[in-house]
Specification:
Number of domains: 1
Number of helices: 6
CATH superfamily: Flavodoxin domain
Helix content: 40-55%
Order of helices and strands: HEHEHEEHEHEH
Distance between the termini: 24 Å
CATH class: Alpha Beta
Shape: globular
Strand content: 15-25%
CATH topology: Rossmann fold
Largest sheet: 6 strands, mixed
CATH architecture: 3-Layer(aba) Sandwich
Length: 179
């Protein structure tokens, strides 16, 4: 084995162990922040919490979205046309004390949902590792990572997208966390 192969093997193992620390929460303080209208993203957040031991915080709009899907779409379209984001309840945590923040969002119109966009706009996260997980109905990740990078510049980013509530999410999360 030449020096390059030995170095690659060492670095791969080192980086894998470092990322696994994110998952286990051993070395870095982590938090899961999510919004869920239908429960899909909440299911993903709870699965991730079981795997990482991270605490969860649910983002809530001060004016909740309707439970009816079509009514939610109409409200989303009106907010998009008016270029407005909904007000959300404040987070009672010092986010600066966390190294890794997992952010969970449904994908709405190819983007992060508006409550998560408001959260990111209001919190001004910097110097963190932001690990985005999204649920979608067929659009995949779409522009969600671009949204995260635009609304929370100056961080490190990773992302994963799940169809619906993410059948088999535990296995996918384990793989994502170990990369």
């Amino acid at each position: 084995m030449n020096r390059r192969s030995i170095l690659q093997t060492f670095l791969t193992g080192f980086l894998s162990a470092s990322i696994t620390s994110y998952a286990a929460g051993k070395d870095l303080k982590s938090l899961i922040v999510f919004y869920s209208r239908s429960g899909h993203t909440e299911t993903l957040a709870n699965t991730l919490a079981k795997l990482t031991g991270a605490e969860t915080i649910r983002i809530e709009s001060t004016s909740p979205y309707p439970t009816d899907y079509d009514a939610t779409i109409e409200r989303f379209k009106a907010e998009r046309a008016a270029n407005t984001l909904p007000a959300i309840y404040p987070i009672e945590k010092d986010l600066n004390s966390y190294d890794v923040i997992y952010i969970g969002s449904p994908t709405w119109g190819g983007h992060l949902c508006y409550p998560i966009q408001r959260f990111l706009q209001d919190t001004k996260l910097r110097g963190k590792t932001l690990m985005l997980f999204t649920s979608h109905g067929g659009s995949g990740e779409a522009s969600t990572l671009d949204d995260l990078q635009r609304l929370a510049p100056g961080n490190q980013y990773r992302n994963i997208a799940f169809y619906g509530s993410g059948f088999g999410a535990s296995k996918q999360f384990k793989h994502w966390l170990s990369i």
